[in-house]
Amino acid sequence: MLVLGLETSCDETAAAVLKDGDTLLSNIINDQNDIHSEYGGIVPELAGRSHNERVHRVIKEAVAEAGVQLRDIDLIAVTIGPGLIGSLLVGLNTAKGLSYGLKTPMIGVNHLEGHLLAIFLQKKIEFPFIALVVSGGHTDLYRVSDFGKYKLLGRTRDDAAGESFDKVGKMLGLPYPGGPAIEKLARKGNAKAHKFPRAYLEKASLDFSFSGLKTSVRTFLQQREQGSPITLTDEDISACFQNAVLDVLVDKIISACKKEKLTRIVVTGGVASNSALRLAVQKEAQVWGFEASFPDPIFCTDNAAMIACAGYHKFSQDQSSSTDFMVLDAKAGLSVE
Ligand code: KG4
Ligand code: ZN
After folding, report:
1. Which among 98, 111, 114, 304 could bridge 5 via Cys, Cβ 3.0 to 4.6 Å?
2. 228: buried, middle or exposed (CB in 10 Å: 19+, 13-18, 0-12)?
3. Mutate to test the pocket of ligand 1, among 135, 156, 268, 336 (most ligand atoms within 8 A of CB)
4. What ranges do the domains of the chain cover?
């Protein structure tokens, strides 16, 4: 069974062809960093327009690289939310056109479900497990009981972890997205040079908060600019900030496992491509005898392979989950539960 995945929820125009749920034939990702970099964040209107310009070329590339024809596709899986509505509509309407023209069934996929199931592109994880989706838009902890069965255990009350990387990156004058740039600087910094605050919130809470940390970095940078005797370099600040984020993420993952009495962990989403985070989770999981898995970095950041994968499993479980393209709609705030 050949699934064409299509992802345009944010600032990546992506298409992928997946065979039988586990053999990835192509995975084309066209990011828009060149467009948004000068603004230090995503400009929704520009993202939508750019998807429009790129989407057909990206699909053509995905199909060609897979060595198949569009008419060979058995199912079209497309992201229908959550995300930027103008961007989602480009992917959805493109999928609708293909579905109508090719008489191929289509299925709407939740972007978060894509992240949650991305690991299945590489290996089969036994249910149930704890999953942390940590990206530019989300920092959500789930109990994953089966395909389609997700229980939200905790989420950020303000900024997402990736968003805080992007905002601190902007303060440091780094290019967008800030996450990879901060990770690179942090490697050369001293993570013990300063202790930024960690928001653990109420005892036993699995929620997150990163806005206080962001403000603390801003205040620190302002003081440095105003001539305070602070000797920390941008590298040190990056390392200290990254450590503060990681400490909280690791702590809450382990707490979620204990609370739910589960031993398997999946960390996914853009920030999960951070190697320091992967190492920190791996290390702490070992201490507690838990098993941690991470999709390869290319499947952590936004991609269409994970959408094809989620679409494949949804369709395999319930053939009627493919929807008449006339009724399928995009929702900016779509929930995965
Ligand atoms: O999953 P994703 O591609 O898009 C969303 O659904 O948001 O995640 C993008 C986010 C951005 O905030 C980016 O800065 C962050 O993931 N990110 C990283 C790294 N690579 C991407 N954050 C920390 N370290 C990284 N290496
Ligand atoms: Zn994402």
Report:
1. 304
2. exposed
3. 135
4. 2-116+300-321, 124-294
| Orientation angle between helical segments 234-260 and 275-288, nearest 10 degrees | 40
Q: What is the pTM of this model?
A: 0.96
Q: Which helix (H) or strand (E) holds 120?
A: none
pLDDT at 320: 77
pLDDT digits (tens, 9 = 90+) for 93-146: 999 999 999 999 999 999 999 999 999 999 999 999 999 999 999 999 999 999
Q: Report the run of H or E that residue 242 belongs to, with start and end.
A: helix 234-260
Domains 2-116+300-321 and 124-294 alike in fold? yes
The CATH code of the domain at 124-294 is 3.30.420.40
Q: Top-level CATH class of 2-116+300-321? A: alpha beta
Report the alpha-carbon distance of residue 17 to residue 267 in Å, rounded: 24
CB 90 within 8 A of CB 55: yes
Atom of ligand 1 nearest to the CA of 138: 7
- Predicted confidence at residue 321, as pLDDT, reads 79
Consecutive H or E run containing 265: strand 264-268
**pLDDT tens-place string over residues 171-228:** 999 998 999 999 999 999 999 999 999 999 988 899 999 999 999 999 999 999 998 8
CA–CA dist 190, 256 (Å, integer) = 30
Which atom in ligand 1 lies closest to the alpha carbon of residue 275? Answer: 26
